[in-house]
């Protein structure tokens, strides 16, 4: 009898461990029970920027996500529908408030792509959460062959009209604007250095960004360098690689030295300046570090 008893007892423990090994973790976070709140969030914020390399095919572009931050396993699987409106008029208000020049992305440039949990019907969008789905992915199929003006910064805008009984997080706003821009060959993050210090431009060594504003022009924004109160634009001749500069705060339109150039192999932009007539020459060097 004792032998049979121990056999049954051993079988019970083996079965228990087997069943425990088969149970999957149903809730990935900290289950807060009835004391928590399920929030709706936008992980990338209410203004999202995508910088794309030029392309001639159709590519799927993921614009942004809505995130249901469930506080317990029951809420994780409960069904909620968030409703949104595709509203390009928001772009005008954004431009006025932020002094930008975003252009609505032309409708023939793209089609809506199948995104997880997202349904699009005209300008009306539904994001269906539930059964463990916590992300709503907004995506488009973008036709790169139609985008020929590198200087254009296009945008898409969305408005949340119904939170579906979810609680908006403190940093969530009713509108989301997505900016799309193309990068030229000179766009990127650079190591900026100067030599031949003058009272105008001291020796410097820092990291800066040059952003596309045209097919062969990049812009250094004001405030990145203390000596420049206005933005500076660098235009590269695609044949000679000579560099010309527009810098309103310095009152000049071009460097006074033919050595100013772009090295396409090393990806180094070099500009030589003279301070006034017969003044000392100083040199600016932008050395490419990485894409942005």
Q: Biggest β-sheet, characterized? A: 8 strands, antiparallel
Average of pLDDT: 82
Neighbour order of strands in the largest sheet? 17-16-15-14-13-20-19-18
**What's the helix count?**
3
Q: Report the order of strands and helices.
A: HEEEHEHEEEEEEEEEEEEEEEE
Secondary-structure class? mainly beta
CA-based gyration radius: 28 Å
Low-confidence stretches: 1-29
Query: Percentage of helical residues?
Result: 10-25%
**What share of residues are in beta strands?**
35-45%
Number of strands: 20
**Global geometry:** elongated
Query: How far apart, in Å, are the first and last alpha carbons?
Result: 75 Å
Protein name: DUF1735 domain-containing protein
Domain BT-3987-like N-terminal: 76-164
Keywords: Signal
Domain DUF7015: 188-289
List descriptors.
single chain; 292 residues; mainly beta; 8-stranded antiparallel beta sheet; 7-stranded mixed beta sheet; 20 strands; disordered N terminus
Report what the structure shows.
The model is unreliable at 1-29 (pLDDT under 50). A hairpin with a 2-residue loop joins β14 (205-214) and β15 (217-220). This protein has helices spanning 2-22, 73-77, 90-98; strands at 39-41, 47-52, 58-69, 80-86, 103-104, 110-112, 118-121, 124-129, 135-143, 153-162, 167-168, 175-182, 188-195, 205-214, 217-220, 232-236, 243-246, 261-263, 268-274, 281-290. The relative contact order is 0.14. The protein is built from 3 helices and 20 strands. Strands 17-16-15-14-13-20-19-18 form an 8-stranded antiparallel sheet, with no helix packed on it. Strands 2, 4, 5, 7, 8, 10 and 12 form a 7-stranded mixed sheet that branches. A 5-stranded mixed sheet has the order 6-9-3-1-11, with no helix packed on it. By secondary structure, the protein is mostly beta strands.
């Amino acid at each position: 009898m004792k032998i049979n008893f121990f056999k049954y007892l051993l079988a019970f423990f083996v079965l228990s461990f087997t069943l425990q090994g088969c149970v999957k973790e149903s809730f990935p976070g900290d289950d807060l029970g009835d004391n928590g709140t399920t929030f709706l969030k936008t992980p990338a914020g209410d203004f999202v920027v995508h910088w794309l390399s030029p392309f001639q095919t159709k590519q799927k572009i993921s614009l942004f996500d809505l995130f249901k931050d469930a506080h317990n396993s029951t809420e994780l699987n409960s069904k909620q529908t968030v409703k949104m409106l595709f509203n390009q008029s928001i772009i005008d208000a954004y431009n006025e408030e932020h002094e930008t020049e975003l252009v609505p992305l032309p409708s023939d440039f793209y089609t809506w792509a199948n995104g997880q949990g997202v349904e699009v019907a005209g300008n009306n969008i539904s994001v269906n959460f539930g059964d463990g789905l916590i992300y709503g992915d907004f995506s488009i199929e973008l036709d790169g062959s139609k985008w020929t003006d590198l200087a254009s910064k296009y945008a898409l805008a969305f408005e949340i009209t119904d939170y579906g009984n979810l609680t908006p997080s403190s940093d969530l706003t009713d509108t989301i604007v997505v900016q799309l821009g193309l990068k030229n060959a000179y766009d990127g993050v650079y190591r900026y250095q100067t030599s031949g210090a003058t009272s105008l431009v001291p020796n410097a060594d820092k990291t800066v960004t040059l952003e596309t504003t045209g097919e062969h022009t990049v812009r250094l924004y004001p405030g990145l360098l203390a000596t420049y109160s206005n933005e500076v634009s660098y235009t590269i001749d695609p044949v000679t690689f000579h560099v010309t500069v527009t810098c309103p705060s310095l009152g000049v339109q071009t460097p006074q030295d033919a050595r100013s150039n772009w090295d396409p192999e090393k990806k180094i932009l070099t500009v030589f300046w003279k301070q006034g007539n017969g003044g000392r020459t100083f040199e600016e060097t932008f050395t490419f570090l990485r894409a942005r």
